[in-house]
Amino acid sequence: MIRAYKFRLRPTVRQEAALRAMLADHRSLYNGALQERRDAYRHSSRTSIQYGQQSAQLKEIRTFDPERQGRWSFSSQQATLRRLNKAFAAFFRRVKTGKKPGYPRFKGAGHFDTVEFPKDGDGCRWDSTPNDAQTRVRLQGIGHVRVHQHRPVRGQVKTISIKREGKHWYVVLACDRVPPEPLPAIRSIVGIDMGAAHFLTTSNGEHVHNPRFLASSAEDLAAAQQHLSSFPRRTKRRTKKHRAAARKVAKLHAKIRRQRLDHHHKAANVLVAEHDMIVHEKLNTAGIAHAPAPKPDPARPGVFLPNGAAAKAGLHRSILDAGWGIFLGILAQKAESAARRMIPVNARNTSRTCPECGHVAKENRTTQAMFACVSCGFVANADHVGALNVLHRAGLALCDAAQPATQEARDASRGWSHE
Fold this sequence. Notes:
By secondary structure, this protein is of the alpha+beta class.
């Protein structure tokens, strides 16, 4: 298995200054490579520059500017150029598929916070056997930086990344061949239904509270954002008060993110510990929370008809605050490590189908919290009904996974030939 470990760095004053310089120089390399690609396309008959050409220039760049570029790891600079190359590859992919292109942008000082080292031991080495009971990571041009390692690292360290979050620095280890830690079998299967009123509801009728961290911090966040917006946006140099206001907004968002992740990890631990098989809906969170398209009025140019965007804004905010996609990703990782099984099923009409008679109708969902079948009269909590339907569809999903995908595969499994 592949796992990532994130630990807090404890740099000295000089090391922190060197870390900031490393980020600034890698950001300068990224922006310079982006500018070169833009100029080549505009002024050289639409010539496209690839990663291999820019990587071949690194040796000359390091020789020309030894103070800013020559002292850092060659491999980390190549990783920065690959990062730009991935941005352009994603841009061209969106252009071909007809989506919003999103041309790669220049990175400002607050939008370039990670430097990647593609291989352990090449410009960055993870010290797994410290001599003074202090774990350290050695960085080229910076030295040995202390690490607050709060749990053991398993597997083989493949890549190392240095990341800045606000005033703090972290090291992220991507490890391969991480051994699983299977839990004893319980012979329990459960279906879960994600919601906004309740964070999730199980097929056993248990509800997990939705803490709504963003909503609870809305007043403080709104006040901080209003204070930040009072400063002029287009200024040559940010003042000390402006930077302090921006840090306050970022600090509040970081707190909300940490609270949400803590809640997700705890809820996932409970599900993995109590059930062998977990069935959930296939959710497209980005599509669910996407704003509806505007409806132009054909009779009045420039005027748009009501599309329900205002009514759905509160629901979309609640869905994004709950973080369904992040939670399902964390749950999948924990289930894989504990030798549990997760089964995704089709989410269509799970809240409109009666678990007793199977009748499907929009009228079955009388309110957000109540389900009442118009055919058989079955009444229950709407989220509980959704979890029951999710659990019932697990058998169909297992049957589909066990059967061959095509007629030729079915015939081949029976020993038949089409020749």
